Amino acid sequence: MIKDLINYEGVVNENFMVRNVIKGIASNGNQYFSFTLQDSSGLIDAKMFSNTESLTPDMFPSGSIVHINGTVSPYKGHSQIKIIDIDVVEEQNINFSKYIPDSPVKREKLIEDLHSYINSIEDKEIREITSALINDNFEKYTTYPAASTIHHAFFGGLMYHSLSMCSLALKLLESYPFLSRDYLVAGALLHDIGKIVELSSAINPAYTIEGNLLGHINIGYSMLQNKGKELKTSEEKLNVLSHIILSHHGKPEFGSSKVPQIMEAYVIHVLDNLDSKMNLLENNLTTTEENNFSAKILAFDNIAFYKPTSLKKEKKDEKED
Q: Is the dihedral of CA 201, 206, 211, 217 positive or negative?
């Protein structure tokens, strides 16, 4: 598994799922291929410099399973595979659970927490519309990733991300009790509801036509409005929840239709940004060796993050002494 390749040097002869592949041209004019490979334990970069003449990127679509023969070695603080041979696996009935990252918390526990948060909403109308939207789309809501690649891109990632925001919001309430708990919980649970239409599946998500043309923010707003009219939700409550969805990316250049103009909407925007960025950092630093920098991260303006020596490890060593 990919997690076993971290800090490993030697031969690799395994199957992986292709996350993406890019063709490049080296300084000598020869083409090479840069792969991002995954299995249920994580992601790893791979490069193929030789035997590429007859290959094209469309031979390795996202979600395809490939058999890799190559070597693993460190490169700029990361483990990287140098591919010698690559073949698409044509097996039937592939067990995709081996290749799809799963939530770090069991689905049953997440679903239990989801129902608990919904039932904790005191306002009847807000609880009703939140429950209806999620229950109408329960299978997708509880299995889809939060994104195709960037953050919480794993089975159940949408639910995990939304519940994480609920937990963070309740912690903020301890310092800012003047905020509305009901709007924070409902906003956290519903802010990304449009992703069940924006993305195509839970297993190998791609952007749908609606997703590309409309985006999950506008889709989520439309879903909320339709359900609100069906349930005859009061105008102000529907407006507030709509504004939370429309503004949760903060600025128009990041996809928001509105900037946050309600306190709870601003909090949801901040928590969404924080939770997604922390998951992105966790993923990058998991595959970075200690005392090294990560690869440059596009979402952080191409900044590379340093991974210091683990303090937990130092404390453990002190106890052993």
A: positive
